[in-house]
Structures are given as structure tokens and as C-alpha cells.
Design a protein that fits this description.
The chain has about 140 residues and is an alpha+beta fold. The chain has a single domain (about 30-140), classed as Immunoglobulin-like (Sandwich). Helix content is about 15%, strand content about 55%. The chain contains two helices and seven strands. A hairpin with a 2-residue loop joins strand 5 and strand 6.
Amino acid sequence: MKRFYRCVCILLVVSMLFVVPVYAAETRASDYFLSSSVYLYKTSSTTFEAWFDVDAVRMMDELGASEIKIQRSSDGTNWTTMKTYTKESYSNLICEDTMSHAACVSYTGTAGYYYRAKITLYAKKGTGSAEWYRTTSSMQL
């Protein structure tokens, strides 16, 4: 029985060596991002722009948004993604060698629906990178 408890203790100690602290993932974004704002700006009765403005804590190799999802809802609670803009397809979403970046994408929706944007902010420095997920307030067209 003593041997059994000893084995269990050894297994617990070994398993704890492979545990990644939860706070590491939570504080990682703060190593890259200083502040940000995201919002929608209506340009006509059915067209709007999804804007982001992001500031980094230091000069970044890449800074901006890796993805912007335009979402629509008829009731303001259940959301469906209508269009996804990515940094690979829209080069204005990412800027190189900077501490701040702002950009937008334009979308034409349908009157009577609510819209919002889910924006994934992105920063890269050397081999490390971080993402910060932000959602705009909703707006009805």
C-alpha cells in the first residue's frame, strides 16, 4: 500500500511539471497591446464602416487586425457572420514596423437588421505574437 501512495505522489509531481499557468495566457496580450478602440461608423442608410485603432506597448513588426467579421442579427441577440475580412486578403488591416495602426472595412447591409463587427487585433514582435478579441457595439440600419 505504501508503494501505491508513493507512485501516486510521484505521478502527481510529474504531472504538475507539465501544467502551464493560466495567467500566462491572460497577461500575454498586455505584453503587446497598450490600448484599442473598435466601432461602427454609418456612411449611408445601408452602408457602414467597421473601424479599429490599436496602440502597442513598443514598436511591433506587425500590428493591426488579423480578421474582421461582420455579423448580422434580426433581434440583436442571435448573430450570424455575413462576411469575413482577413489580413491576407486586405493588406490595409496590418501595418509593419509601427506602434499604432488604424484602418476600416466597408460593408453594405440590409435595412432593418442589427450589425456588429468582431475584430481580432494582432501584434507580432520577433517570433512572438498575440491576439486581442474585441466586439463593436451593435447598430441598426
